[in-house]
Amino acid sequence: MGQKWIFVALAFLSLHNFSWQVKIIDNGLAPPEIVHTPVSVKPRCVIHAAPLDLIFILDSSGSLRDKFQDEIDVIRRIVRHVTIGETATRVMLIQFSGTQHLEFNFKKFTTREELLAALDVLRHVSGITRIGGAFEFALEALKNPTNGLRDASVPKILYLLSDGRTHDYPKDWEMVEVARRSIPSIDIWAYGTGNYVAMSALLNYTQDVSKIATNANLVGLERQFDPFHGTEICEKIPSCVKGSDKPVDLALLIDASESLDQLFKEQIRFAEERILNNINVHPDAVRLALITYSGQTFVHFKFNSNQFGNNTAVLNHLGTLRSIKGTTSTHNALRDTFALLNSSDPNDGTRLSVPKMVIILTDGHSARAPKEIAETMRAQGITILAVSVTPRPYVDEAELLQIAGEQSRVFTPRNAHEFEAELMKHVGFGCEGLELGPDSKPRVRGATDVTCNSNSVTFTVRTQRPMHGLMYAQHFHDIPECTVRNDGSSREVSITFYDGQCGLYKTPSQVSKKKNR
After folding, report:
1. Which residues form the signal peptide (predicted)?
2. Closest to 75 (Cα-Cα) out of 43, 108, 122
3. Predicted local confidence at residue 353, as pLDDT
4. Which of 76, 169, 180, 431 has its CA 20 to 30 A from that of 315?
């Protein structure tokens, strides 16, 4: 019967503001963020378990067509119970009827999730039953070093799933003896499939009735494998905030002078599609300052701007920009940018320990060469990317190189396709030590998350600023397990309430009741 949660206690968050005044949105909660879950990355696990090489020999003959899923379920139960890993239990699976097929060897899958997924796609083969041929095939596969069998110090269990009724007697008995002589550390266990099991045959294979599981004693299946049930401590794969592993103070300079009047909209489009779409404007990720210039420099907003503290606000503002006309004073714009990046004024929002970067959109025709100030900035560790949407021969590529200092950081229509590859070196997204891969799935994460399992509900709240406060279930603020206090070290706080505590209880859902009628 399905369950649903009835939560009569509400969670409250008390926020105590810091001494300085900041203007934030009404409720103080964090704005939506684009996050990527690295689905291609496996969690790192610390495993402590006895090693085992486990070989399943799966009878897929025609007589067991209706029992095939029973056999698969037995394998699933064993895989879920033992500890899977390169240093723990490794699994090989052979499927047979009149012929044999190696579905996967010991090296193919190293996690429980991979093995269970592989079992989901196995299909019944049909045909006559040749258990002797299956044993012979398994022995040859085990002798092949490419299949990953470990040395004699590692126990080996050959696990037959069959009703024991074969068409190649006495080859089955003969091959069992050959296997025992060839691989001294091997043991043979069995699951007797169905209700009509040839127990004498299975007993001949295993030589011990306690190593035979049937439907009559299946409740003890997992206990047989207790010696190989160890511990697995796996890290939780995090949701990676785009840009959060490479925070940067980024100054975006846009040349709005007369020489670029016809291409100004192209510059804005480049900034929107090629820059903003690849960064996360966020207090903990990319802090952005926007500057336009011609003869004079105009700072639209600095690094600490709450009004322009997310991608949407910046994109909306970029759409309002117009060219200024006048001369091109790139040297002055870079000088003013340098001063902002070096500012210690908290109102400017520059972070001390965060890399600094400048992206400048210009055609390179400055009234005065910017070489000297650009060299000074780069000498202080500031990365500069110089971008022009102006085609040859109208772009001054030599000046762009003077600004960026390296040809790999100069971009014109000729090599604009390489821009993202360079940008992502400095503002790339992901989590430290992990690669997202091409199949990472973006989603929008809001200020609150509610997650449930069979006996608890977890609330997570994210705020714009690190918070001091108390989160608790209403009417239960004086019960320790119903409260959590945040000390101001994080913008995120979570609390978990368990069934029967803090006013939380579950009851059968009305939908499930109707289905069961």
Report:
1. 1-21
2. 122
3. 83
4. 431
Residues sharing a CB contact under 8 Å with residue 68, sequence separation 6 or more, in sequence order: 60, 124
What is the Cα–Cα distance from 258 to 255, expressed in whole angstroms?
9
Q: How far is CA 493 from CA 30, 239, 490, in A?
A: 12, 15, 7
Expressed in percent and rounded to 5, the helix, strand and coil fractions of the chain are 30, 25, 40
Cβ-Cβ contacts under 8 Å for 8 (sequence gap 6 or more)? 503, 504, 505
Pairing of strands 33-37, 231-234: unpaired
> For residue 153, how far is the Cα from the chain centroid?
36
Domain boundaries, the chain: 3-30+446-512, 45-233, 246-427
Residue with token string 């608890």: 456
Quick: pLDDT tens for 446-466. 677 788 877 888 888 877 667
Q: What pLDDT, on the 0 to 100 scale, is given for residue 380? A: 94
Q: Which amino acid is at 87?
A: T
Task: List pLDDT tens digits, range 81-98.
Answer: 999 999 999 999 999 999
Q: What is the DSSP code (8-state) at residue 451?
A: E
Say how many CA atoms lie within 13 Å of 143 toward its Cβ: 11
pLDDT value, residue 13: 41
45-233 and 246-427: identical CATH topology: yes
- DSSP string across 97-146: SSSEEEEE-TTT--SHHHHHHHHHT-----S---HHHHHHHHHHHHH-GG
Mean pLDDT of the residues in the chain: 83
Is residue 254 within 8 Å of residue 291, measured between CB atoms?
A: yes
Q: 175, 181, 272, 189: which is closest to 224 by C-alpha?
A: 189
What does the alpha-carbon distance between residue 473 and residue 9 come to, in Å, rounded to a whole number? 5
**Is residue 5's pLDDT more than 80?**
no
Nearest CA-CA partner of 207 in 162, 176, 169, 185: 176
What per-residue confidence (pLDDT) applies to 17? 34
Phi and psi at residue 329, in whole multiples of 5°?
A: -115, 70
Residue 393, preceding peptide bond in cis (omega within 30° of 0): yes
* CATH classification code of 45-233: 3.40.50.410
The residues, ordered by sequence, that sit 6+ positions from 76 with a Cβ below 8 Å of its Cβ are 116, 119
Mean pLDDT to the nearest integer, 358-372:
91
SS (HEC) of 322-380? CCCCCCCCHHHHHHHHHHHHCCCCHHHCCCCCCCEEEEEECCCCCCCCCHHHHHHHHHC
Short-list 108, 68, 78, CA closest to 92: 108
- Which pLDDT does position 32 carry in this prediction? 57
pLDDT at 260: 72
Q: What is the Cα–Cα distance from 429 to 243, expressed in whole angstroms?
A: 4
Q: Which CATH number fits domain 246-427: 3.30.110.40, 3.90.550.10, 1.20.1250.20, 3.40.50.410?
A: 3.40.50.410
